[in-house]
Amino acid sequence: MNSFLNRRHFLKHSGKGLGGIALTSLLARDGLLAVDKPIRPNIESTKPFSARNPHFSPAAKNVVVIFCSGACSHLDTFDYKPELVKRHGQPMPGGEKLKTFQGEQGNLIKSPWAFKPRGQTGKMVSDLVPQLGELADEICFIHSLTGKTNTHGPGENFMSTGYTLDGFPSMGAWVTWALGSENEELPAYVAIPDPRGTPQSSVNNWGPGFLPAAFQGTDFNATKPLRNLIRPPGVSAKTDIATRRFLQRLNEQHLEKFPGDTELAARISSYELAARMQLSVPEVSDLSTENSATMKMYGADDVSNPIKSSFAKNCILARRLLEKGVRFVQLFNGAYQTGGEGVSNWDGHKVLQEQYSKHGPVLDQPAAALIRDLKQRGLLDDTLVVWCTEFGRMPTFQKGASGRDHNPDGFTAWLAGAGVKRGYSYGSTDSFGWKAEQNISSVYDLHATILHLLGLNHERLTFYHNGFERRLTDVHGNVIHDVLS
Amino acid sequence: MISFWHSGLAIFFVAGVFSAPSLCQASDSKDHWAFGPVKRPLIIGDLKPIDDLVEKKLRANGLIHSQVADRLTLVRRLYLVMHGLPPTPEQVEEFINDSAPDAFTRLVEKVLASQRYGERWASHWLDLVRFGETTGFETNRERPNAWHYRDWVIDSLNFDKPYDQFIREQLAGDALGEGIGTGFLVAGPNDIVKGQDPKLGKMQRMNELDDMINATGTTFLGLTTGCARCHDHKFDPISQKDYYSLQAIFAGVSHGDRPLELSETIKREIEQSKAEIARLKVSLSKFIPKSLEALREPVSSRYNVENFQAQEAKIVRFNIERTNSSQPCIDELEIFSGKDNIALASLGAIATSSGDYVHPFHKLEHINDGLYGNSKSWIAAGATGWVQIEFPKVKLIDRIEWARDREGQFNDRLAVKYRIEVALDSSKWIQLASSSDRKSYQKNKTGKELYEFLKFPQNQAKQGQKMLLRLEEIEKRLVALQNQNKVYAGSFTQPEATYLLYRGDPDAKRDQVSPDAISAFTSLELTSSEPEQHRRLALADWIASPDNPLTARVLVNRLWQFHFGDGIVGTPSDFGVNGMSPTHPQLLDWLAVEFMENDWSIKHIHRLILNSKTWQQSSRPKLDAMKLDATSRLLWRYPTRRLAAESIRDSVVMVSGLLNLKSGGPGFNGFQVQMENVRHFFPKKSYGFPDWRRMIYMTKVRQEQESVFGVFDCPDASQSVPKRSRSTTPLQALNLLNSTFLMQQADLFSDRLKKDVGSNPVDQVNRAFSLCFNRFPTPAEVQNASLFIESEGLSQFARALLNTNEFVFIP
Questions:
Q1: Whole-number pLDDT of residue B518
Q2: Residue B7: what pLDDT?
Q3: Domain for residue A156, yes or no?
Q4: What span, in angstroms and rounded, lies between the C-alpha atoms of A63 and A329?
Q5: How does strand A411-417 pair with strand A139-146?
Q6: What is the CATH number of the domain that holds A356?
Q7: First to last CA, chain A
Q8: Rounded-to-5 percentages of helix, strand, coil across chain A
Q9: pLDDT digits (tens, 9 = 90+) for A209-231
Q10: Same-domain status, A92 and A2
């Protein structure tokens, strides 16, 4: 940074005598003119979470991703298809010999939930998610997403990391690697698992891949606190601090023998962060300071539905983290540990109506309250809300079943908040909602757009690994400029 | 093949990381470097090829080796890398005082000869073969007999079993007198929830076989075969047909226990136990009320004997007339002629029945396969029925033993009313034994209720109760003895035909395929009716052949990686076209040739590496070199790195003085387990001596992370892990600072220090540094630490030391 400033200073004040060629070469060496050159974040190994400048002026500072695990059906939530209602019970043209993930298809089936116009825009949203529907004027829908896989694990990986395989950095890891955090007392990146457990690809959704491990998501939620966070019983606060100070001194003396060794330095700073987290995490997780109106707004007081009230608490936790300046929050809705196929996630293959009737209310009020709450606190001006799922579902029911199979060829995600159009819909699927048809977009495009909103150029945010300059967007992706406000 | 590397096509990056991106590699996979024969490269000088070849590459990049590390560093590094434990102060002193020029070489020999070596390096192998001791998936049930394979790997490494033999025994050990080795085939997860949906069942079976194919391909060959399940491999020369040919190799392998031959000692103990049971029952009979005296004991689900006068028989039929519930089940019907069970199918006896219940666990063949327990049992089709054994010729028989479940888990489906008959031909049956002279079976009643001790004088009653306790004990012991030869090493049957499946769909069969290896490399020339065992043996022979271009290269690369943190090939389980290219191709081939020419000795490669300057150089960073090669990939220094989870735990317990060096046997549990149908695992609340064994002996539970050390990048055994990630996180810090486990260890460590050197803080500091860091503290360190001990106590000092970078990093 300093050398850059000095050089600019030098150019500014003595530039007149320099020829254009010399100037260009100097700038090129710094990677300033070459638009495709990587921009490396300047990370102090001992302060990996300090805030860093984006590539350009950002629209959003923080992100919360609401991830519906199990593939939440666009056709039963946000993508209204009158033709599907009309042709209910008929075979799908072009679908006669179709075999999808679980096999053959039956007939076209309309959603069991009615769609109604919502808000000023009259956006059609289903009765499965009425409260989110009420927010339609705040939301920017992308209805033409396409994916690369029809399997959950790889699909979740793809949505969270841009690759279907395990082991690539998650979006949150990329973002916090690039930008650090506005709050060094808390993890820069928090993954909040669903109260029912972890999603299908579990920790890979918030893994660091080949990025430094410091940028992986730290996972805890409102009911399952971080283990071993609290100082051990029988050790006074004074002694605990003295011991950690003593430890730090030992580590610093040791580091003097290995100047520049980043792993050693990183381990020292991990202890510092751990100490800060001992104070900050319990504080941020303590929902007792929330008033009853807030608890009610989120549905956190709903004793009749403990899963919903737990998810609502996770949503409140997400808001509190964002409020404190945590850069990236991933909020999961749906899990696999406590029930596969559709039982505690959105994978409605066989009995969609029965299963979604349970999942809809868990998601709807708490997630809608989160957006409202962010808005009323003025946080939505800086915060980007992303709602996504690994892929969509078929407009047909599976042969011999009452549910929809996987469909990565056309599905919905939506954005709200900082930097995006309000009450807008981008792209569309065909008349049944099977395949993306207009303004076809990819998960890569979605990623490129999210990075763009954070002031990051997805083509220049790269990390060299195994012979490649790796990106979140691989070698693909275009910012969807249409959705930007 | 290596010529590619000499042709100057290799691309170097300014950043100082060196490899050709795969996009630039030869487009035809046949020319791929790793698929060409391994040849000893011509090396000028040839005295110390490792150092020469590493140095050549260093010089080409403007770098040089670092100087040799000091002796304290060397001895500490050697023990940490090879044993996963720091050396004791005594071991350090011995080496430091050994001024002979070959002192280090001799130390290497000593370290390689230790049991501790296998216990550390087996963990690398177990990661690779996705070894776990639970089934995984949602039930995650225990596999109580899987640990044998872990011990077998440790022993194989310690005995320096030639690697080609090590391979063969893992694929076909049953044919080679080393049955435990095939634990490799079934080390992975399997879904034991069998639904009614036939397609699901087929898919589960395909997934089991896929796991075996993948494990074999990645472990031994460094090839990703899995993608060929649905279509030809996009990069490597593996066709979909090859995939199904490989599937035909493993098509007869099933998950499950297999009994190994019992040792003579065990056989004798079983006989003695049975005799003691009989004696005890006779002695106890006087406590049975007169009204029942004449009757035999009621049937038991675990073990029943029918004794009778020796009788000639060709056929023995077991007729079941009533059960305590549902259709009758018998896990094994044993018919004895003297000491030998002559009912075994392997001796030519043939089983038939009135009809069989259809289920993967329950088959007619299990009635006389020598396997005990519910999952290897026979169930009749109806509520009553019969099963019979026909011998190849007439035999003299004198005893029959049978049970519902000798493993003692099930007591339903028990035959409570039965007749056993014999015949010389099926026209004339003679009844041998029946339930008519037994006391009637009462649910939930053990033998205990039979005896009425209270009517007898106190001393006799006491004696009787004692005998009853002994009887119960010995019956339990018998169950354990009869089952102890079981090993989770898979079972084998002759498979049906294998077909290529269109897009991997089990319902879309295409052409039949014969068992074979990958056609681009070889043909095993097997027929589609090839005996099951031959298939695996043939594949093993091809993999373990010196002509296989991959096997030796892949293994020496793995060894290199575990020494230096990175392999010569950075993608240790992908030597295919999409993998990384070697940084030092000649070195890789030289090591591979050395390996094979020295009887595939892993310890030989260790010796070569450990005695090199490259391994022995200092790890101190040099700023100019860091700029050129920040990750030390070219080895201008020895790359430091954090210890693996197991090594941290073991080191902690070792310095606290309580490392339990019990080797082998069933593992200890790292969790509190909630025993429901779906197992739930919770962190332990307290720890004792059994928990302080080396972590390799902790029962490996899939999916669940051990609560303290799991976050130190411990794999969960769902997938093969050729190289662990090495992360640094605040969660690790919290676990090591605050967990119950560590706090207890800190207390124990402090007790040890007091015991070793008394109460003087200076002595305590000296001793602690020598135990934890293998060095003396500087005067400033002594002063600092003593002051700390005086104000905060010795346990806190111990807690701090166990958390230091110096303690958990390989120097």
A1: 92
A2: 28
A3: yes
A4: 6
A5: antiparallel
A6: 3.40.720
A7: 32
A8: 40, 20, 45
A9: 778 767 888 888 988 888 899 89
A10: no
The residues near A353 (Cβ < 8 Å, ≥ 6 apart) are A112, A402
- CB within 8 Å: B641 and A228: no
Q: Give residue A266's pLDDT.
A: 83
- Which structural domain range is residue B363 located in? 298-441
Strands A396-398 and A115-118: unpaired
Evaluate if pTM is beyond 0.80. no
Contacts of A138 (CB under 8 A, 6+ apart): A371, A375, A380, A416, A417, A422, A423
Q: How many CB atoms lie within 10 A of CB A357?
A: 13
Strands A62-68 and A328-333: parallel
Q: What is the pLDDT of residue A25?
A: 40
The alpha-carbon gap from A221 to the nearest alpha carbon of chain B, in Å, equals 15
Cα separation of A481 and A448, whole Å?
A: 10
Report the pLDDT value the prediction gives residue B387, as an integer from 0 to 100.
95
**Paired tokens of B745:** 């260890």
Residues A76 and A9 in one domain: no
Q: Please tell me the predicted confidence (pLDDT) of residue A1.
A: 34
Q: What six digits make up the tokens of B783? A: 């002063």
Q: Say whether residue B793 is in contact with chain A using an 8 A CB cutoff.
A: yes
- Provide the residue range defining the domain that includes A28: 1-34
Encoded tokens for A158: 């793809």
Contacts of A254 in chain B (CB under 8 A): 804-806
Q: Report the DSSP pairing between strands A428-429 and A189-192.
A: unpaired
Q: Which two tokens stand for residue B159?
A: 């005995």
Mean pLDDT of chain A: 88
Question: b/e map of B681-706 (b: 16 or more CB within 10 Å)?
Answer: bebbeebeeebbbbbbbbbbbbbbbb
B781 to chain A: nearest residue by CA? Answer: A250
Q: ipTM value of the model?
A: 0.76
pLDDT digits (tens, 9 = 90+) for B575-586: 988 788 899 999
B285 in reach of chain A (CB within 8 A)? no
Segments of chain B with pLDDT less than 50: 1-27, 195-196
Range with the lowest mean pLDDT among A397-406, A465-474, B622-631?
Answer: A465-474
Question: pLDDT at position B717, please?
Answer: 80
B738 touches A: beta carbon within 8 Å: yes
If you write DSSP's letter for every residue of A173-242 in order, what string do you get?
HHHHHHH--S-TTS-SEEEE-BTTB--TTGGGGG--TTS-GGGSPEE--SSSPPTT-SPPTT--HHHHHH
How many Å separate Cα B11 from the centre of its chain? 41
Domains contained in chain B, number: 3
Contacts of A277 in chain B (CB under 8 A): 730, 734
**Which of B707, B732, B796 is nearest residue A239 as measured by Cβ atoms?**
B796
Q: Read off the pLDDT band of A404 (50, 70, 90).
A: very high
Q: CA-to-CA distance for A336 and A346, rounded, in angstroms?
A: 10
pLDDT over 70, % of chain A: 89
Q: Of the candidates A214, A244, A467, which has its C-beta nearest B22's C-beta?
A: A467
Does residue A39 lie within any of the structural domains?
no
What is the total residue count of chain A?
A: 485
Is A377 found in the same domain as A449? yes
pLDDT tens digits, residue range B580-631?
889 999 999 999 999 999 999 999 999 999 999 999 999 999 988 988 888 8
Q: Which pLDDT band, with edges at 50, 70 and 90, does A166 fall under?
A: low
Contacts of B267 (CB under 8 A, 6+ apart): none
* Same domain flag for A397 and A442: yes
Q: How far is A212 from chain B (nearest CA, A)?
A: 7
Q: Is residue A231 part of a domain?
A: no
Count: domains in chain A: 2
Residue A4 has pLDDT above 90, yes or no: no
Residue whose token pair is 């075996």: B212
